[in-house]
Predict the 3D structure of the following.
Amino acid sequence: MDSPSSTHGAAVTAEGFGLKGPRGWAFRGVSVAAEPGTLIAVEGPSGSGRTCLLLALTGRMRATEGHAEVGGLRLPKKMSAVRAMSALGPVTGVNELDPAFTVAEHLRERALLQRRFDGSLRALLRPRAERAAEARARIDTALDAVGLDLDTLPKGARTSVRDLERLEALRLSVGLALMGNPRLLAVDDLDLKLSDAERVLAWELLRRVARAGTTVVAVCSEAPDDALRITTGADGTTGTETGSDTDTEITEEGADDAIAEAGRA
């Protein structure tokens, strides 16, 4: 197991991991073991607990059964520490881009927030030009990591989020998340409203992130062959790519209730 102080991607393990909402189990019986830098795909139909599992593994939801460890930190006991080392890409109702903001506004806002969270008091008092250069470098690094070229957008950096194509918005969301240098990146509904060609590009984006060392967990309807797969199903089973099954109960009502609660938190 990797050390919690490591700057590399976080190892992710779970055994009998489950979350029960007011109207039933959102997910149950999840077991997985993934090394740092692994691309993990949570595959299953909508309403099968995929997003709840994503949020539980990033410390945003409290599991009610079993346990998991992320970067050596045990869940649900160390939820706040896991939240600090992880970052969310787009998650409907929890972490979404503001459609009225431009791309530049999102990037500037995130750079400012990261400087406040990460910097010492001395760093915050540096000359404005120095701080602006650091923010620009942070933004450029994130854009390069996700392959988002602002010059190709309809109005460049001044393009509103509402005018972005789905794949462009995904790249922006992931880039914003990477600005915090997380050890674990979580992305919901990766393949939603994407063409076959766009799905290929979306998965290649996440492979690039994983190859750079960050562990990635992505919710999808169909996982690629090279991902470590966790399947969730309305028939009440979950399993990993090894094909192991466990007795579970996963209900759409339980998942929806849990996601709504996370959005209010």
